[in-house]
Specification:
135 residues; alpha+beta; four-stranded antiparallel β-sheet; 4 helices; 37% helix
Amino acid sequence: MYSLHYHFVQCVKYRRKALTNPLVVDFLKTKIHNISETFDVEVLNIECDKDHFHLLFSAKPSLDISKYINTIKTITSREIRKNFPEVKTMLWKDTFWSRSYFIALIGQVTLDILKQYVENQGKYASDEEYKDQPN
């Protein structure tokens, strides 16, 4: 028996606002779900903001986390650029994701609070806040 829950955050390179199109966001979520199935990972929640996404997932202790994360980054980057060529105009060269990311084990006590936080990504920030920020 295990109860390992993770919080993973990945930003677009240079925090470019490349996740504003709902079709791109849905595509990203679908790809992450598909990849997760092959790794026997249970996706608890995925939500996006304009320049990053949060993924909550549960996995067995035997999961090779770096391989899982690198697979997500590689496949989603390639497939988003291929299926949504307009996204390339927002990127620096051909790089979609930042090299760095955040991942943490989360305790069961805070899981509901963290789920609520992830669900609310992008819902409260007005578009006015982003107009003054450089891409």
